[in-house]
Structures are given as structure tokens and as C-alpha cells.
Amino acid sequence: MPESIPVATADTPSPSGDAGVGSPKSPFSKHILLTTYPDQNGVDPVPLQWGAPDAKTRGPIIASRNLSQLKRRNAMGAHGGSYSIYNALAIAAGDLPTDFKPDFRNTEPTFEFPTQPAWGDPKKIVSLDPFGHDVMKNFREYLDVGWDLRPSMAVTRANMRLAEIEKAVSEGKLEVDGSIVVDKNGDVRVTKVACEPVWYLPGVAERFGVDEGTLRRMLFEHTGGSYPELITRPDLKVFLPPIGGLTVYIFGPPERVSDENVPLALRIHDECNGSDVFQSDICTCRPYLAFGIQEAIKQAQNGGSGVVIYFRKEGRALGEVVKYLVYNARKRGGDTADKYFLRTENIAGVRDMRFQALMPDILHWLGIKKIDRMLSMSNMKYDAIVAQGIKILERVPIPDDMIPQDSRVEIDAKINAGYFTTGKKFTTEELSQVKGRGWEKWEDVTDPMGIL
Fold first, then answer.
1. Over the stretch 135-182, which tens digit does the pLDDT of each residue have?
2. What is the pTM of this model?
3. Is 256 a catalytic residue?
4. What distance in Å separates the CA atoms of residue 317 and residue 329, rounded to the nearest whole number?
5. C-alpha closest to that of 111 among 253, 248, 251
6. Which stretch is the leader sequence (predicted)?
7. Each residue's pLDDT tens digit, 336-360
């Protein structure tokens, strides 16, 4: 941290010498500065030492482009992930002042997570800010003199209700203990951690086995050139990407999560709006999520700890539009398990873009060093976690009786491709006989273009 923190005010002259737009208090100038360069006059990033053992030594993450901070930034991108675009719309529409700074009073975490060794390890955490939940405590000096700093994590507590949990309670599969499951309606107390992505580019590049320059160029090109400083500012190593984040759901006392002497049940779940929310039966996502939550609750009730982590990676990070296009190709081409991945590859070019290499960062942040029961069949998730030095003692597949009939195509194809199972593995010949429900009475068509 600098010996003296300069006051950040919106009245600082613009880089071009022009007055602000709209009013003297506007943080933008009439001159649009598309990018900056390391040796440009006035460019002086606030020091940022990724991997430092504590927040004050590491320094604050400053990404705001307002006039008072434009040349002092030490990060590219914008807070809010994909929601940064809505923030821009609100300002353009006049609903949000351009110089608005949040009032963070009383927003501090409801549980003070103990500092973990991984928070100061630049190899273990590269995709989130380990100090992003406590900006108010760690960098109050900056906030008090006008710097625009934003938390990238938040910790709260709530009750949650899930139909499957209510059913489990009514059937006696889960007990009402008054602490975790609080009543017969299946209301469950949970500690929640929301997290936006914050990427340390050298570390992200290393995880993917590419050089930093290649990573920067691809990010620049494939965001439509939206972030030119990926190219012009190699000295800026932190990037806040416009993508979705994750939410951690902790069942039982959160202090147990990092205790290696306490058994831990964990479900890593990637977003599936159609199944998770609207309960489409073409995949196993909602049933596996509900099973994961139930097992996490049981582990917590038995004196252990239960964690479910929900990543915003819709449609294997291919998006919902691609997912629905694949559904069409599957149903019109004869929906069999042996061609399950082919439909996706034809449209997206790859089977899966979730790339689990960054996923274990949140486990390191939580202090998890071993997982007693991993509620997942994914070999990608398993390999990524074990590669980060976290032990997995048992892998737990979804029970057969929870698999919807129409989703046998998906689950049997995945098992054949290497997913963990304790049940039957099908041959390619047998997979061709596993067929999903068609569109009878909707659209009785089989490969109308004759290409599949």
C-alpha cells in the first residue's frame, strides 16, 4: 500500500484537458481514451502484488475508468461480470449517475472465513480475488478518500426451500433437526458466498498450458476487441472478464469446511436453466443437483460439512442457444446415445467448453484439502481437483432411480466417454440402441436434410 493514498476526486482534469461531459462532476471527458500504454504520461498503476500473504500487502484491485482513476488502474475489465453491460445501460438511460459510488455500510460478511494459506499462493488461486469479500475492512483508507473499489465476493445467510428436500423430509429420509433443516416444510439454513471472476492472467495462462501473450490475444479478438489494453498494457496482469461467476452453498457451520478432521460432501454443479429451474427431463441436471443438496445436508447433520457450488456455465459453457440447436439436431436425427456428442461437435466444434482448470480455485479459497464424498461422475472435474492437490476419497454417481428416462441418452453417452459409474458401461453397439423420446404429435421428422 502506498505510504500516502491520494484523494480520488471526479474533478481531476481529463487526460486531454477537456471538461467533463454533462456536468463538472462527470467522471468522463469529452475526449474518448480508447486505450492506455505503460509509458504514457501520467500512467501510474496502484501497486498490485498478486499472491501476497495479506490484502494490504497485495493492494486493492482498481478497475474503474472514471477520470480520477483512469491512469491509476491496475486491472482491466469491469466489476459485475456479465452484469457490467446492464450497468452501462442504466447509466446511458439516465437511471444511474455516472459518478455513483456505493455505500457499503452493513454489507460485511455474515461469517468471517479464516484466512487460508492458498489466499497468498499465486499458483492456487488465479480466477478470483481471495480478498474480494472484505474490501470494506481491508481498503477502507482508499474508500474514505474517494476511490471507487468494489467487492467481487459477498457472504450472506438465508433459508432455502426445495421440493425434493420437502419430499425427503416427509418420507423420513431427512430429519428436522431445528438447526440445518428447520421445519417439516424442508426449509434449510444455508451460508452463501457469491463470487465474480477476477483473473490473474499469468496464472490462468499457466493453467491452460499457453503463454500469456496468446491468451491475451485470444481474449481480445474473441470479445470483439472490447478490451484493447489486453494488448497495449502487458503491465496490467489482472482482468475482470464479462462472464458469470459462481455461488457457494454451505450446509452446517461454515467453519467446518476447512477442517480436515470433518467429513465433507461436495457437489460441483454447472448451470442448466432448463433442468435446474424448469425441470426439463432431457438431462440429469436437476435430479443430480437435488441429490447433491440432500447428501450435503445429511453429511452436515451427521457432524460433517456439506457444500454445493453452482457455476454459471450454461450448456457446458456453450450457451443456451447452442444447447437448443443441439436438441433440435438430436431429435430430428434420431436421438441415440452413440451420436450424443456428435450433435454438439457439429454445431459448437467441441463437446464441452467448461474447462474445469479454474474450478478448484474456490475450493482453495474455502480451505478444502480433501473431499470425503464427491457427488459427481465427471472425470474433468475429478482430474482438475486432484491435479490441484486436493484428495477425493469417494466418488458418488447419481442413483439410477433418479435418472429420467429421456436423459438415458445423455448419461449413458457420458459414461461411455469416461464418466465415473458403479453401474453398467455400454458398448458403442449398445449405445446405438439407447434412444430418447421423439417429437411424436409435435414434429414427426427424421433427418429431413439427409445429412446425419
1. 999 999 999 999 999 999 999 999 999 999 999 999 999 999 999 999
2. 0.91
3. no
4. 19
5. 253
6. none
7. 999 999 989 999 999 999 899 999 9
User: What is the C-alpha to C-alpha distance for residues 335 and 408, in angstroms, rounded to an integer?
Assistant: 11
Active site residue 354: yes
Rounded Cα distance between 443 and 328, Å, is: 11
228 phi, psi to nearest 5 deg: -60, -25
Indicate which residue of 352, 361, 373, 412 is catalytic: 352
Q: Which of 86-100, 257-271, 286-300 is predicted least confidently?
A: 86-100
Judged by DSSP in three states, 289 sits in helix
Q: Among residues 354, 361, 373, 395, which one is catalytic?
A: 354
Give the β-pairing of 305-311 and 264-270.
Answer: parallel
Residue with cell 467429513: 263
What is residue 117's DSSP assignment?
Answer: G
DSSP labels, 55-84: HHHH-------STTTTTT--EEE-TTGGGH
**Dihedral class, residue 426 (left if φ above 0, else alpha if ψ from -120 to 50, else beta):** beta
Q: CA-to-CA distance for 315 and 60, rounded, in angstroms?
A: 34
The grid coordinates listed for 178 are: 431445528
The 8-class DSSP code of residue 278 comes to: T
Angle at 172 between CA 170 and CA 176, to 5 degrees: 80
Q: Count CB neighbours of 224 within 10 A.
A: 7
